[in-house]
Ig-like domain-containing protein (Pygocentrus nattereri), 300 residues
Amino acid sequence: MLALLLASLLAVHSLALEVHVPNSPVVVLFGTDTILNCTFSGVSTFNLSQLAVFWQLMDAQQSVHSYWKQQDQLTDQAERFANRTSLFHGQLASGNVSLLLKRVRVVDEGTYTCFVSMESHSRGAILMQVAAPYTKPSVTWEGDANPKPGDVVALTCMAYGGFPEAKVLWQDGSGRNFTENATVSSVANDQGLFTIKSVLTVTLEPNNTYSCKLTNPRLGDEGHAFVTITAQGLAFPPVALWVTVGLAVCLLVLLIALAAVCHRKIKESCEEMRAEQEAKELEEAKELEEAKSATTPLKS
Ligand SMILES: *[C@@H]1O[C@H](CO)[C@@H](O)[C@H](O)[C@H]1NC(C)=O
Ligand SMILES: *[C@@H]1O[C@H](CO)[C@@H](O)[C@H](O)[C@H]1NC(C)=O
Ligand SMILES: *[C@@H]1O[C@H](CO)[C@@H](O)[C@H](O)[C@H]1NC(C)=O
Ligand SMILES: *[C@@H]1O[C@H](CO)[C@@H](O)[C@H](O)[C@H]1NC(C)=O
Ligand SMILES: *[C@@H]1O[C@H](CO)[C@@H](O)[C@H](O)[C@H]1NC(C)=O
Ligand SMILES: *[C@@H]1O[C@H](CO)[C@@H](O)[C@H](O)[C@H]1NC(C)=O
Ligand SMILES: *[C@@H]1O[C@H](CO)[C@@H](O)[C@H](O)[C@H]1NC(C)=O
């Protein structure tokens, strides 16, 4: 009983019109032509004069391309798609109702529906995404032409004409990530393509390189540019070195002198103490003598 039901359901299903579209997003390069694939199957008798196809941009509710009575019907086509769309008329009889869209723009991005009617009807939806590669980024810096270690400089990284917005990564020669200390701004031109500008404020280290990497998330390509800043010489400029050495020598001399003075003072006070001690001992001895001589008469 159940098997019979299933079989009949399957039979009905196989008779119903089915629309096939790619189910992953279609990424199209800006300015190129693309085919949005859409095919259908499941009709019992194929009669082209009964076929109707409606391509629409779902989000904007705009008509992209329509077909019925065996011809294109473009009176209600949105202006922005004028002269940029076509169906493959020779392929319609084999169920291929794919849309050719020419010179893809950023604003074309969105979900397209392919609606097919013949005996019954059905539809499929395709997400189309636009991508444009950025120019190779350039890195410049403002300020001193001869930067020194410890100088704070602003490095600017610029790239143009990409879509969508890029990720920026700043690193130094040893791969340290400086991105958190950079600002990123992007401005779209009238075609929707971005100019990316990132400014990194960094305290220069001697002889270091700073690089800016741009990644277009949709293309995965890495635009990459770097700047090598050879900050003037050593971290210890010669003048500072001599001043330091001079100061150190002075300090040393001072310390020695101080030590010598102290030593003498200690020695003097020691001698004084010894002299005092001796004097005291002498006194005691004398007192003892006197005491002795004083007791003598008593004894005798
Ligand atoms: C359209 O379909 C054809 C045939 O299946 C395939 O070769 C082509 O890559 C598809 N194009 C796109 C943009 O998906
Ligand atoms: C539909 O026909 C066009 C033109 O021949 C072809 O480029 C495209 O790949 C076809 N699509 C499918 C899904 O077969
Ligand atoms: C196709 O459909 C048209 C209009 O419905 C009809 O006049 C014509 O006879 C049909 N052709 C076939 C082969 O069924
Ligand atoms: C489309 O092409 C026709 C004929 O070449 C032209 O008259 C019309 O201005 C074009 N429309 C657009 C929007 O480019
Ligand atoms: C970012 O800047 C802060 C403050 O100037 C500094 O403490 C920190 O070390 C910097 N981060 C990196 C990765 O250099
Ligand atoms: C670099 O740092 C930024 C911000 O702190 C972070 O988002 C990013 O994932 C880091 N990238 C790498 C490659 O470490
Ligand atoms: C600076 O970098 C260059 C190239 O990496 C290296 O040859 C040189 O020894 C470095 N100088 C200093 C002072 O670190």
Observations:
- The longest strand covers residues 120-131.
- The radius of gyration is 46 Å.
- The chain is about 25% helix and 35% strand.
